[in-house]
């Protein structure tokens, strides 16, 4: 096969592996799971690591799909002896690939935003209940 097809294939395999490990790391980093550490700061850092893996996966997908689309465009506009009806066109798979890459990058960036701020680190979010009718005014 051509070099751009082999490169796109390798980038997509890398993207699949990064996405698979991103899913595993993100599930471990979710606050609702009891896997791993009990510390919420550590859990959120694990979730951020999963988000980084998702962003990298989306970027690999975007690079692979865009590389293939660039080659299709180059072949289309190149002066050649290939008849006009035998030239390549953008297929629906390219648009699905761009959509999947953008959604993966968006989801990974949302996971990266779950990192706690430095001033909130270690705070416990307990709500103290005070009945409003039990207050006495002196």
Overview features:
single chain; 138 residues; mainly alpha; Butyryl-CoA Dehydrogenase, subunit A, domain 3; 62% helix; transmembrane; structural molecule activity; cell junction; Claudin
Describe the protein in words.
Belongs to the claudin family. This protein is an all-alpha fold and 138 residues long. The protein has one domain: Butyryl-CoA Dehydrogenase, subunit A, domain 3 (Up-down Bundle), CATH 1.20.140. It contains three helices and no strands. It has helices spanning 3-29, 40-77, 92-112. The radius of gyration is 24 Å and the shape is elongated.
Could you spell the SSE succession in H and E letters?
A: HHH
In CATH terms, what is the architecture?
Up-down Bundle
* Beta-strand percent range: under 5%
Largest sheet: none
Number of distinct helices: 3
CATH class value? Mainly Alpha
Low-confidence runs: none
Structurally, how many domains make up the residues?
Answer: 1
Q: Kindly state the percentage of residues in helix.
A: 55-70%
* Global structural class: mainly alpha
Could you tell me the radius of gyration in angstroms?
A: 24 Å
Cα-to-Cα separation, first versus last residue: 87 Å
> What is the average per-residue confidence, as pLDDT, rounded to a whole number?
82
CATH fold annotation:
Butyryl-CoA Dehydrogenase, subunit A, domain 3
Q: How many strands appear in the DSSP assignment?
A: 0
Q: Give the overall shape.
A: elongated
Which helices and strands appear, and what pairs or packs with what?
Elements: H1 3-29, H2 40-77, H3 92-112
Helix pairs in contact: 1-2, 2-3
């Amino acid at each position: 096969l051509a070099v751009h097809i082999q490169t796109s294939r390798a980038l997509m395999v890398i993207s699949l592996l990064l996405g698979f490990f991103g899913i595993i790391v993100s599930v471990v980093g979710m606050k609702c799971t009891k896997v791993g550490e009990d510390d919420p700061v550590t859990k959120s850092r694990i979730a951020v690591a999963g988000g980084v893996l998702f962003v990298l996966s989306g970027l690999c997908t975007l690079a692979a799909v865009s590389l293939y689309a660039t080659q299709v465009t180059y072949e289309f506009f190149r002066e050649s002896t290939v008849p006009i009806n035998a030239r390549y066109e953008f297929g629906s798979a390219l648009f699905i690939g761009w959509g999947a890459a953008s959604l993966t990058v968006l989801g990974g960036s949302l996971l990266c935003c779950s990192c706690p701020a430095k001033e909130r680190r270690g705070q416990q979010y307990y709500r103290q209940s005070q009945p409003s009718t039990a207050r006495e005014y002196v």
